[in-house]
Amino acid sequence: MRWPRQLMSLLFVLAFLVGPPVVLLTVIGPPLRGWPTTDQLRAWLQQPLTEETLTAGLAIGAWLIWLLVAYTVAVRIIVRLRATTAWLRRVPLPTPLQATASGMAGAAVFGVATNTVTTPPEPPQPVLTGTATLHDETAPDDHRDQAGREDGVTVAGGWLPRDVAEQVTAAAALVWLRRRRDYQPHPTHPDDTDLTPLPPTVTAVQAALADTPSAPPSDGSTTPFAALPVGGVGLTGPGTLPIGRGLLVTAILAGQRPSSTSLIVTKATLALLLGPAAETLGRRLPLTIVDTIDEAAQLLQPDGPATEESSPGQRPDELSSGPNHRTIVLLNEHDGDEEQLTQLAATGTATAALLVVLGKRPDGPNWHANSTGHLHDPHHPIMPSPRLCVLDQTAATDLLSVIARPAPPPPHTATEPPLHPYTGSPDVPLPRQVDRPRPQRLHRTPQQQLHLRILGDPQLLIDDEPLAIRRSASLQVLVFLAIHSNGANTAQLTDAIWPGLPRRSLTGRLYTALSDLRSTIRTASDLPVIDHADDRYRLSPKHIDVDLWNLHATIHQAAAALTHTAAAWQTVLDAYPADLATTRTWPWLDPHREATRRRIIDLCAALAAKEPDPHRSLQLLQDGISIDPHNADLHGLASGALTALGHPQTAAEL
């Protein structure tokens, strides 16, 4: 406990501040008893070193030392008071609506009953991590209408509205689901290239929304295009291209809804927005790419040509015509002359299409776009300024890469599933038995047992009692080091936990998280859990046991089993109660979670291939499907096994 040491320190400081003055005043008296007279000065000059002058000099020196200590203590107290005052200023005050609701609730409580009602303190709100942070331009003391708030996510390359950020997060989740579906448990190359982490901008958006409550899903009726004039607009100003990229991403995301939005863009405009990535990325995006605005005008005609004939080599999506469908045409001012732009605008107005020109539009309204994404109508300066998504080339390319259709995977020809190498802690011994009912802990200490469980809900157990870890970053550090058993340096930890932010601004955060984690563990155990050497942090395998390490050892032992495959597989199932940190949505977890899951289904396919009993082989495949119900290859293998056993109907249902 810290409070006894703090109390002793406080008593020592008080004794040092009060004791010396009392002793000096009692024994010697005050350092000066008035100003010296002329005779006293003359006598001191004639004989400066006397017993009286030496005593006075020592007393003055003692008083000066005491004054220096008192000054230091006073400065420390002032600094602490200023820090406390600054913290109190940052505490969010209730809004008028919240204050009114609290007052009504209090009146109701005191009016209904005279009993004292006590409530537990409100838990601290989750802190957003990473380079992306929720952005709200309305300060706490701003009395503007709450509806005027601009909630969104700020990333290194721009700003996204909240609903767009949530759609990006959903698209990122679909990428991992697609990878799970397409993975084959018998790959040709054991290094899973499709486990590459998602682009930094995507992980930054995920990190910003990871620990925040999700808003109700949008029905698509409040898209940013509703803020633009009917028929379209021309955009001028420094934010033209960043807003153009934001409109491109927003329109493609909105187009994922059936009969919602379709996008037509010229090839030159796409190259202007995305740069070198336009050629390769454009083919995989759900949009229609045209060479000229005349082709765009033909596509807008009700009896226009089929979109498959629009541009050779491109893959334009079919333009639907549902009741809520909207066609958006995105081009720049150099795509055509004034007459062509006017004709396209007339066609768009007749077909309720929205024409957005990145540059001056000769025949329609032109709004000024600033670098923050705000639009201003010069003819109505007092009108509200809508804010649209703004992105640079890197951020736009990152976001579009998770929306685009994946490239076809290379064909796999291997028939025997190669197993992944053992990646557990090198200091952890392999279990001796395979047919044990549950994996035993590999390290035991006579005093205390520290066990880190990261399969399922991450928890640190000390003598089987969970220890509460207050900071999300501290828990992430613990889980990250458990996954990377050989340790991680400062850059790897900060890049994972706070993606995208400059490392120089994150060292303090990491040290704070580590200090809080060590302090939390120290209150319940004196064992050193985290080792630090040569700028690498590592969990000490001598003092902590990790269930993931046990799982790796169990898989390695089961893969080497030539007989008793049923017992070996059951041991693995017992050691894998749930996915890696299944209750957490930290972006850096996805590759490791999928890699761990793949080790399980790889072993499942290998044991099923070696199992001579077809019924037992089918049971193994069904167990694998229960672990990863999205994997299509396991379904195919199980369907083939069912057909071979004479159950074609069950195979078809599967």
UniProtKB/TrEMBL annotation:
Biological process annotations from GO: regulation of DNA-templated transcription
Membrane spanning residue stretches: 54-79
Keyword DNA-binding: yes
Entry keywords, A to Z: DNA-binding, Membrane, Transmembrane, Transmembrane helix
InterPro entries noted in UniProt: AfsR-DnrI-RedD_regulator, WH-like_DNA-bd_sf
Highest taxon of source: Bacteria
Residue ranges, compositional bias (Basic and acidic residues): 134-149
Location of region: Disordered: 129-149, 302-324, 403-431
GO MF annotation list: DNA binding
Keyword DNA-binding (UniProt): yes
Protein name: DNA-binding transcriptional activator of the SARP family
Organism: Micromonospora rifamycinica
